[in-house]
Amino acid sequence: MTDLQNLGFGMVCAPVFTFILQPTMYLKHARMQGLPLTWDPRCLWRGTAASICNETGQAGLQFLTTGLYKKLILGGASRHLTPLEDVSAASAAGATSALYVSPLESVTIQQQRFGGDMADTCRRMYRSFGLLSFGRGFVATALRDSVYVVGMMSATPCFEDRLTKSGLGATTGSLVGSCAAGVMAGVISCPFDCIKACMKGDFERRTYGTFTETARSLWRSGGAARPFHGVEWRCANLSGCFFIVALARRELEPYLLMGGTTDFSMESLPERMASAGVLR
């Protein structure tokens, strides 16, 4: 796909999986911060507007920058990326997108904890903690998203391809591959996500200070298991996200690849669909 198509594809998918999976975000953040869990829908979907703004821009950037980094690695050469190159491009895209993601996740977590709408939360954060507070937890966010994008852009397509070649149906292969990649990425990235959530939920720094101070505090309070609190909700969130993206890519990508011409006459449509692999 072109750079513009990558950007658009990510931005179209994001509102869908964000709204569907928002409860897993709330439950994950509450579990990571040691807050009581609730099944009240008003709490489960609190912060959805901020999350949609976050995920829409995030997904668009991640698809766009992954494509750009892949092109940069290839340098114009006509060949397939090696697995290491593919993973490196996705990881770099995740870290890059954290520049956008980190401030919006601060707003989401503060809103989930203390209520209020998105604008009120932004004003309160700025008045109480200053502009730099929006970037709190950036390093943890960048490390987490590096793993997240590798799971979505590298691991899921790889697992999906291998599973379908082994005889599973396309949808079943997507589901199993997405769950496998989601669990893998969720477990690996959970400690970074936990550190991020605790830092962004404690702007006053009563318990959690810097990245290393937060990591030490979590270890002292619960040992090796403490940074993995909420891992079940993170894995559920990533698995659902990866599955929705995989389905959308499989259904939409052939039509996007038909682009490149302004001739949309019915006479040319079958030929273009066949060349894109839609008709076989």
Task: Summarize the amount of helix as a percent range.
Answer: over 70%
Tell me the number of strands.
0
Q: What are the segments in which pLDDT stays under 50 over at least 5 consecutive residues?
A: 260-280
Strand percentage lies at under 5%
**Rg result:** 20 Å
**Number of helices, where a helix is a run of at least 4 consecutive DSSP H or I residues:** 10
Shape: globular
Which structural class best describes the helix and strand composition?
mainly alpha
For the terminal residues, how far apart are their CA atoms? 20 Å
Largest sheet geometry: none
Q: Mean pLDDT, nearest integer? A: 88
**String of helices and strands:** HHHHHHHHHH
Characterization of the model:
With 280 residues, the protein is mainly α. Helices cover 75% and strands 0% of the residues. It has 10 helices and no strands. It has helices at residues 3-32, 41-44, 48-74, 83-114, 118-129, 138-165, 170-201, 211-222, 231-256, 269-276. α4 crosses α6 and α7 crosses α9. The longest helix is centred in the middle third of the chain and has 32 residues, at 83-114. The two termini are 20 Å apart.
